[in-house]
Each structure stands twice: as C-alpha cells, then as structure tokens.
Amino acid sequence: MPEHRPGTPGQYYVLESFLWRDFTGVDDWLEWTREHGLARAATSTREIFGQAMALREALRSLEAMNNGERGDDAPARLLNELIESLGVHPVVGPFGDVKLSASAVTGRNAPIASVLVMALDAMSKGMWERFKLCQDPTCRASFYDTTKNGTKTWCSMQVCGARNKMRRLRERQQA
Ligand SMILES: [Zn+2]
After folding, report:
1. What spacing in Å lies between the alpha carbon of 165 and ligand 1's midpoint?
2. What is the DSSP letter of 142?
C-alpha cells in the first residue's frame, strides 16, 4: 500500500505516514524523522523511540474507535500526559488565529511533539474522525478516509476490499 493516498490533506501527510509505517527500531525512527524534516538531533534513544511508539499505539487505538470499535480511556490519558510533559499550549496570532505550540521540547523529543500537535490539530478541526484502521483483520493499515460521507472501511478497495468480499462470499457459501 502506498504511504499517501490521493486526497489526504497535505498538512496531515506526516501524521498519515507516522500512523501507517511499521517502525522496526530506533534507527528506522531516526531515518523517518529525517525524511520528514522533523529531526533536530542526530541521535535518538530507546526511551524516545518507546515514547514515539506509545503515542503511535494510542493514536491507532483512537483510529480503531473511529471505526466504531470499542476502547477505553487509556489512549486519551497518554495523549494528555504528553500534552503536559511537552508543554503543548495554544498561541494566538496577530489576527486572532490560534495555533498549538510545544514549549518543553528538546532536539530528541521534537519529532514526537510535531506529530502530537498534528494529531491535536486534526482533532480540533473535526478531521481526526477520518483517520481509521483498515477493517481487514490481516491488514489493519492506517488510512485517511477521503470519501464524502466518511464511510470507507478498507485501506484499498482493490486489495483488502476485494479480499473481504471473497471471504464473505465463502462464508455465505459454507453456511
Ligand atoms: Zn487494508
């Protein structure tokens, strides 16, 4: 599956990529932060990588809730803890426009703060509900739902959608 699908708003590309990519370790994480212009430090630690993956899991759990799956308040708690520890706060611009900024940021946790601010931006603008997980149990890829009424359930109709239609057909035939 491609990292970005047509129709995803440009300001959410990095967030889309973060939720979609399967990070293999600290080096992979560092490479990703460089690719997206988020890295301010040449190194990252296991601890920072762990925090990034905890944020990713929390956001993916919230994506599952956007699918209508049940969850608990643990992902929201983790996000609120990060907002606290990274010092995320609103900043009012000269014309009354509001942006989020993170004040307690170091070179190493700057990429986490950037991703968190992007997710909060999507949530505050009512765009977050469009971030979902593919309902194909063997896929579970994150995707941005670009359909008008927000009813997309598979990341790709050609691959996962077709596979699920086949599966349902087989189940019906066996029943
Ligand atoms: Zn899929």
Report:
1. 13
2. E
The secondary structure of the chain in percent helix, strand, coil, rounded to multiples of 5, reads 50, 10, 40
Residue 156: what pLDDT?
87
7, 144 Cβ separation under 8 angstroms: yes
CA of 100 to the centre of ligand 1 (A): 32
What is the CB neighbour count within 10 angstroms for residue 122? Answer: 21
With beta carbons less than 8 A apart as the criterion, state whether 160 and 150 touch. Answer: no
Q: pLDDT digits over 128-154, tens only?
A: 999 999 999 899 999 999 998 999 999
Mean pLDDT (whole number) for 29-42: 87
C-alpha 158 to ligand 1 mean position (Å)? 9
d(CA 2, CA 21): 10
Q: What distance in angstroms lies between residue 144's CA and the mean position of ligand 1's atoms?
A: 12
Residue 29 CA to ligand 1 center (angstroms) comes to 23
Question: How far is ligand 1, taken at its centre, from the CA of residue 139, in Å?
Answer: 5
